[in-house]
């Protein structure tokens, strides 16, 4: 029998890969086996193109309790407490059905966290869209934001931070990355490692329907809207809440040996992963799986991506207790199989053998590809453009340029979005969204808190993937440092175009290298992550977007600071003085260009600046800190001012290092710099500390109650007007 | 005093209520399961927020039929103090233990932020001892909190002093812009005629520690501890 | 038992006196899209309930009971029930 | 102009194969109340739209356009439209 090209396309395998399957098995695969190989060997599950690259990441460190490979990474914050966290994409489903796509994205990442035995305590999200001027984008934006809130609010997990960025490259392929953070007792971490021949495999939660069949393969092809054929998954956050509580309760018993949620590729991947990581076999009977629909065959049951399901491996003697807990939470559970000793995944349909394949074939034998990347000449040219050849901004235009930037969708207030997310539930939120550069969430029962933030400036990565990759790590960490936290580890989601194109592979490879180098330097190991490739539409890739989520630790929660300066404060710039408009929001706004070299990044300086700010905050010398990102120095200062305050700024000490140019001085972007606000009495001590830390420190202004922003004795603008512009950007 | 906090399937404010009573108020507290049939041994009950049964039909509509609700109703009839918060308000309203209905927010979107509310009467179990006019800063987090009654019912509620909290500006003044959900007459919280059952949309149980942005919720939770509650609600 | 399955449709709408911001928002959305011929929209719920009953009348009556107890909040909502002619056994 | 106002009813429901958590919760709620004769519930939306049109057919057709562009999400939902006979001017 020769397999048709059609049938191979259905499971997204190449002919060469198919031949490998035949060789491994020593025979033609049965239909369900073929479907399972397709899913497990997809980029989404098998990391065919990315696995070799991910080896570059540093993944170990004194705090790492669980690195990549499990449902989530875990870091130790002392006192036996672990923080479990991970970020994941739901880009393709969100392009097709924004609300449900985003909602089920949140559901999936939350399951990853409680599967580890951790209680989820915070959600973040990182979003990328086309221009809001387009009604289709507006629809996607509203749907995605609605779905994130709809699911997270119902679960009762606060959504505390994130980032949003707009660029035309995302018009046909928005990015929706969701991150979840949980707390776990380090001695009670659960893993997805089946063990104990004879132990029972229990499936609990939603009934299985035809939804999302081939979701994993669909996430590994281009043009989401056209290629999607499966049934859209509709999330049930209510059921997930029951599942969450029940699973955490079940893990309090001694009866559970392994737990694995059903995500991409459904039962297929959860059974295969449980077996393979435990070095055991698993045999299940699909007839034992309760269905939502009639007439489903084994293939459909194995590849269904129905949400809100969990696979639990239970000791036989504990079954009754475990099921009693599920019953108490009104959850349906089925014993669908057991652990075997032969290392094979065996899928029965009653008496019929549908699959009998060593688990390792699906996992360890998954092919990997190392490709040759080539930089796109178009992008290299764009980077080579000398931005200083553009005419400088005249002083008369500073006000207009500032208003335009404040209202830019990439800079303006996120309040209209953030307000639709419950961020006060669980009574742990010390710094909610908008209050600081990162959210600060206390750890109940201790004096500690964590700070969390996602970030990635995709323009920098586009123009220079290596430097941009470093920036993503450094900026997320810097935001966390601005609250006083010490960044301890990170998670990441690599959203890129097709790796099969040399230009796409180049971006992926270089960005990962940059991230790895920055993560190593900043001592923030990568403990979890996710890869989403083939983010293209109409043959155009999205901006390369390696989203980074950083977790930082604050030993004494009472020292955490936000970014609002108080009246009378002195504003000081710590770190880099020189900025560039290369790759800046200003360049895009004012000149309509994405060009020039992005800001350079000196990792040594970055480390010193972050450490200095952490120390200054811990010793209560500063009461607010804010990093300067998109929009530059002036935008950052305004974001630190309450509407009733004003400020007198004097940037003259920075002028020469910015070539005397106003555009660079006011709106240029740079890494390794943070504005801090301190009482005048602290300034001397801060200077001493900065000197010892070898960090440049410059006084750039004072906060007053004038209600006016006064710049270099030349320009005055009412703060409330600027706030109006800032508040307007995302409104209809 | 011993508090009970009812957990329905989909409740998610139960943990906060338990923490607020234990850590903030430093009183005894225990969870109550929706399938239980008794509330014996509790001096006060909290029906917490969340999305009971996913709020899939109408907020609170399915939960009001839970087995525990019979005992809750008896407790209410005996004058026992009950506080319904957010989804708990919706459950009590569906059960007829609190007046009015709660509709989708006028702006159609979920709203999470801090608001100011003004105490309108100190005669209830959860406003006992608070001066009318007292302004409390509390978080809200809801999508269906638009309290609705007809003008006749409103007059009736006014007359019987059943309006306990109103949204207001930070100084306690009426301000339509301070009404976050379009509720009738800016009503944020109400009580039954007797005053022992109080229901409100804002979350006092999330405001029990200055570290979390404020602790003024303790004034509501703690009102029931003050002497004179029995007299206030005629128990 | 002589019971059959009936497909019962329930239409729930807000009473006139109750403000319907959702209906207003939909109307505005339609106007923005150029559907100027729309004067107004009222938004409600549509439930399809499969009911086993001895007769269409019984299906209707039991569904009315469901509406009165659970499905509709009769303080603010009104409902209408239709039993599909075609019943399956 | 010869236009009249038609009351158009739109019934939007999830496609058969799509998961309907809301319907499931309502079914369970009905069972808990003793309505054991209920086999299943599917939850959808019910819209009453007042449309000015030259004929019932036109009202129907324009409303279908509204459904395709805004009212229904045809990725997961399907809809049915009824134009009331009685039209007002
Ligand atoms: N999608 C989102 N969800 C929740 N909070 C968000 C989201 N996007 C941005 N925020 C919050 O808005 C604030 C500003 O974010 P951002 O502009 O990315 O900051 P910065 O550029 O300084 O890193 C932060 O508090 C951030 O956590
Ligand atoms: Mg910013």
The CATH topology name of the domain at 4-17 and 44-85 in chain C reads Mth169, Chain: A
Mean pLDDT of chain C: 92
| Strand order within the widest beta sheet of chain C | 2-1-3
What can be said about the biggest beta sheet of chain A? 7 strands, mixed
How much helix, percentage-wise, in residues of chain A?
A: 25-40%
Which CATH C-level class of the largest domain in chain A is it? Alpha Beta
Structural class of chain C: alpha+beta
Q: How much of the residues of chain A is beta strand, in percent?
A: 15-25%
Number of helices of chain A: 28
Name of the CATH class of the domain at 4-17 and 44-85 in chain C: Alpha Beta
Major β-sheet of chain C, in short?
3 strands, antiparallel
Q: Radius of gyration of chain C from the CA trace?
A: 17 Å
Q: What is the end-to-end distance of chain A?
A: 59 Å
Beta fraction of chain C: 35-45%
How would you characterize the overall build of this protein?
The complex is a heterotetramer, with 1 copy of chain A (732 residues), 1 copy of chain B (235 residues) and 2 copies of chain C (89 residues). Chain A has 732 residues and is of the alpha+beta class. Chain A is built from 28 helices and 28 strands. In chain A, the strands form 5 sheets. Chain A has a 7-stranded mixed sheet. In chain A, helix 11 packs antiparallel against helix 14 and helix 20 packs parallel to helix 21. Chain B is α/β, with parallel strands linked by helices and 235 residues long. Chain B has a single domain (2-233), classed as Class I glutamine amidotransferase (GATase) domain (Rossmann fold). Helices cover 21% and strands 25% of the residues of chain B. Chain C has a domain at 4-17 and 44-85: Mth169, Chain: A (2-Layer Sandwich), CATH 3.30.1280.10. Chains in contact: A-B, A-D, B-C, B-D, C-D. Strand 2 of chain C pairs antiparallel with strand 2 (38-53) of chain D.
In brief:
The complex is a heterotetramer, with one copy of chain A (732 residues), one copy of chain B (235 residues) and two copies of chain C (89 residues). Chain B is of the alpha/beta class and 235 residues long.
């Amino acid at each position: 029998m020769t397999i048709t090209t059609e049938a191979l396309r259905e499971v997204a395998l190449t002919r060469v890969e198919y031949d490998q399957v035949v060789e491994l098995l020593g025979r033609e695969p049965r239909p369900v086996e073929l479907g399972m190989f397709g899913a497990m060997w997809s980029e989404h599950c098998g990391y065919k193109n990315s696995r070799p690259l991910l080896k570059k990441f540093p993944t170990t460190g004194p705090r790492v309790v669980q690195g990549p490979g499990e449902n989530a990474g875990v870091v130790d914050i002392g006192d036996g407490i672990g923080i479990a966290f991970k970020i994941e994409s739901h880009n393709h489903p969100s392009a097709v059905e924004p609300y449900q796509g985003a909602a089920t994205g949140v559901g999936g990442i939350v399951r990853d966290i409680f599967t580890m035995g951790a209680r989820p305590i915070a959600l973040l999200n990182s979003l990328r869209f086309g221009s809001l001027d387009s009604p289709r984008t507006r629809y996607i934006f509203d749907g995605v934001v609605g779905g994130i809130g709809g699911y997270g609010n119902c679960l009762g997990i606060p959504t505390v931070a994130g980032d949003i960025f707009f660029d035309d490259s995302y018009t046909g392929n928005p990015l929706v990355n969701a991150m979840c953070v949980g707390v776990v007792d380090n001695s009670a971490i659960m893993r997805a490692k089946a063990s104990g021949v004879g132990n029972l495999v229990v499936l609990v939660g939603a009934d299985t329907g035809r939804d999302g069949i081939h979701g994993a393969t669909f996430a590994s092809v281009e043009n989401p809207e056209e290629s999607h054929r499966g049934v859209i998954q509709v999330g049930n956050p209510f059921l997930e809440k029951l599942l969450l509580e029940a699973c955490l309760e079940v893990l309090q018993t001694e009866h559970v040996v392994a737990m694995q949620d059903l995500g991409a590729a459904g039962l297929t991947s959860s059974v295969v992963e449980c077996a393979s990581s435990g070095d055991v076999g698993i045999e299940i009977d699909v007839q034992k799986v309760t269905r939502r629909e009639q007439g489903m065959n084994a293939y459909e049951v194995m590849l269904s991506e129905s949400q809100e399901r969990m696979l639990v491996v239970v000791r036989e003697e504990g079954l009754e207790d475990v099921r009693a807990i599920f019953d108490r939470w009104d959850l349906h559970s089925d014993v669908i199989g057991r652990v075997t000793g032969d290392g094979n995944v065996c899928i029965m349909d009653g008496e019929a053998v549908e699959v009998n394949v060593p688990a390792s074939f699906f996992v360890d034998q998954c092919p990997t590809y190392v490709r040759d990347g080539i930089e796109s000449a178009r992008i290299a040219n764009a980077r080579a453009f000398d931005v200083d050849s553009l005419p400088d901004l005249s002083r008369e235009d500073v006000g207009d340029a500032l208003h335009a930037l404040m209202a830019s969708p990439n800079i303006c207030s996120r309040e209209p979005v953030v307000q639709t997310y419950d961020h006060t539930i669980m009574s742990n939120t010390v710094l909610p969204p908008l209050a600081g550069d990162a959210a600060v969430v206390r750890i109940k029962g201790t004096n500690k808190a964590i700070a969390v933030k996602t970030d990635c400036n995709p323009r920098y990565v586009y123009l220079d993937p290596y430097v941009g990759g470093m920036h993503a790590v450094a900026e997320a960490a810097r935001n966390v440092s601005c609250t006083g936290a010490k960044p301890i580890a990170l998670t990441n989601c690599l959203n890129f175009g097709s790796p099969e194109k040399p230009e796409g592979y180049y971006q992926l490879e270089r960005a990962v290298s940059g991230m790895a180098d920055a993560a190593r330097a900043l001592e923030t190991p990568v403990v979890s992550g996710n890869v989403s490739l083939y983010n293209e539409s109409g043959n155009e890739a999205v901006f390369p977007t390696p989203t980074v989520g950083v977790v930082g630790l604050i030993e004494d929660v009472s020292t955490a600071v936000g970014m609002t300066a108080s009246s009378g404060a002195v504003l000081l710039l710590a770190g880099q003085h020189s900025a560039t408009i290369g790759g800046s929001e200003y360049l895009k706004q004012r000149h309509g260009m994405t060009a020039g070299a992005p800001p350079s990044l000196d990792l040594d300086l970055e480390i010193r600046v972050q450490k200095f700010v952490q120390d200054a905050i811990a010793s209560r010398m500063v009461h607010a800190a804010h990093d300067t990102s998109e929009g530059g120095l002036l935008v950052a200062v305004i974001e630190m001012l309450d509407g009733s305050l004003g400020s007198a700024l004097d940037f003259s000490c920075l002028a020469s290092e910015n070539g005397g140019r106003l555009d660079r001085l006011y709106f240029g972007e740079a890494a390794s710099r943070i504005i801090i606000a301190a009482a005048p009495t602290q300034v001397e001590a801060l200077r001493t500390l900065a000197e010892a830390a070898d960090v440049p420190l410059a006084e750039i202004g004072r906060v007053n109650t004038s209600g006016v922003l006064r710049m270099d004795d030349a320009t005055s603008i009412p703060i409330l007007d600027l706030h109006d512009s800032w508040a307007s950007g995302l409104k209809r | 005093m011993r508090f009970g906090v009812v957990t329905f399937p989909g409740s998610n404010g139960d943990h906060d209520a338990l923490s607020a009573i234990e850590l903030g108020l430093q009183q005894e507290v225990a969870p109550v399961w929706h399938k239980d049939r008794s509330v014996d041994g509790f001096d006060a009950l909290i029906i917490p927020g969340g999305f009971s049964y996913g709020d899939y039909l109408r907020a609170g509509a399915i939960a009001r039929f839970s087995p525990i609700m019979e005992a809750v109703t008896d407790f209410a009839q005996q004058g026992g103090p009950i506080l319904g918060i957010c989804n708990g308000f919706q459950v009590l309203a569906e059960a007829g233990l609190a007046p009015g209905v709660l509709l989708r927010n006028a702006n159609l979107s979920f709203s999470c932020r801090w608001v100011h509310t003004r105490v309108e009467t100190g005669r209830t179990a959860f406003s006992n001892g608070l001066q009318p006019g007292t302004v409390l800063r509390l978080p809200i987090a809801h999508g269906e909190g638009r309290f609705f009654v007809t003008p006749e019912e409103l007059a009736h509620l006014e007359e019987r002093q059943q309006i306990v909290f109103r949204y207001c500006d930070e100084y306690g003044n009426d301000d339509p812009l301070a009404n976050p959900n379009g509720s009738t007459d800016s009503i944020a919280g109400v009580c039954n005629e007797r005053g022992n059952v109080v229901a409100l949309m804002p979350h006092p149980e999330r405001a029990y520690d200055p570290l979390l942005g404020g602790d003024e919720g303790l004034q509501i939770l703690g009102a029931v501890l003050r002497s004179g509650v029995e007299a206030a609600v005629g128990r | 038992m002589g019971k059959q399955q009936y497909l019962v449709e329930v239409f729930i709408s807000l009473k006139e006196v109750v403000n319907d911001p959702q209906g207003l928002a939909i109307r505005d959305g339609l106007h923005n899209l150029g559907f100027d011929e729309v004067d107004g929209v009222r938004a409600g719920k549509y439930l399809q309930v499969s009911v086993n009953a001895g007769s269409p009348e019984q299906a209707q009556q039991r569904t009315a009971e469901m509406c009165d107890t659970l499905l509709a909040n009769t303080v603010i909502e009104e409902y209408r029930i239709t039993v599909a002619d075609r019943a399956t056994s």
